[in-house]
Amino acid sequence: GLNSPFFKIDKTLPTTTHELDGVIGECGWFVSDVTVTLSAIDATSEVDYTKYKLDEGTWTNYVDPFDVTEDGEYTLYYYSVDLAGNTEETIEVEFKIEHDTTPPVTTHEFQGDTGDNDWYTTNVVVMLTAEDDLAGVDYTMYKLEDDTEWQKYTGILVTEDGEHTIEYYSVDKVGNKEADKGPFDFDIDQTPPTIDLTWDDEDSKLVADVDDETSGIAKVEFYVNDELVGTVTTAPYEWEVTKPKQGDKGQAIVFDNAGNEAISPEIDAVSQSQSQSSSSTPVPWPFSWLFCLW
Questions:
Q1: Which site among 23, 157, 163, 177 is 20 to 30 Å from 185 CA-CA?
Q2: Which residues form a coiled coil (predicted)?
Q3: Which residue ranges form the domains of the chain, and what is each CATH number?
Q4: pLDDT per residue over 30-54, tens digit each?
């Protein structure tokens, strides 16, 4: 029999795509080196070769991905040819590189209710805000107090009373690291002081036994019958009552340095013996002569 002739027909152009791999900054261009990868396919006769050039450079056979490392605005040209000789139309793609060598800038804000002397009297939220105009911020690290490990910032809530410090830094998407910032101080005292008020009969004094474990005692105000009679700012916290009389009531309010306060219960400002003495009843006069005669 006759042999049938065998032949191939390929009229289809190859197809080439590109990938630009690098860090795109907040501004829309690359802020790092760029790796260029070209990928070509052909449905029938397979790809013979791919050529490319940057700007007005010479055409080069593409073999492996290549890096573009200098700052500048570029135009990449490329096309592929298949084994049948079909030549793809030249493709153009523009890109820009402006390397980012500047680290981000981070600031902090303490959020909470403030009392006296810059003490916070509630839990404190620490807000860290980082900005980077080129590559953009990758992450922020922080640590509370001197003896803790660095942690990635996702939000900070501090609830414990005491004196606190925070340090922090940020890193952008191309690895520029900000210098450590801090330590910055903030103090929390949410706990009122304690007070125990007693009457010193011998010296006619109101005596306040007070304590505050965090910010310390600022002052004690002494009241007699709801009227402020004196303020004491240093130990001992005592106040002499002039000419106390039956029925007088004493009370005191203690304030710590953060502005927290505690009020004592009311107490008698005259001793029981004085009260009894001042309220004793004289013997009726008609009967007094009997005692004399007796």
A1: 177
A2: none
A3: 15-97 (2.60.40.10), 105-188 (2.60.40.10), 194-270 (2.60.40.10)
A4: 999 999 999 999 988 899 999 999 9
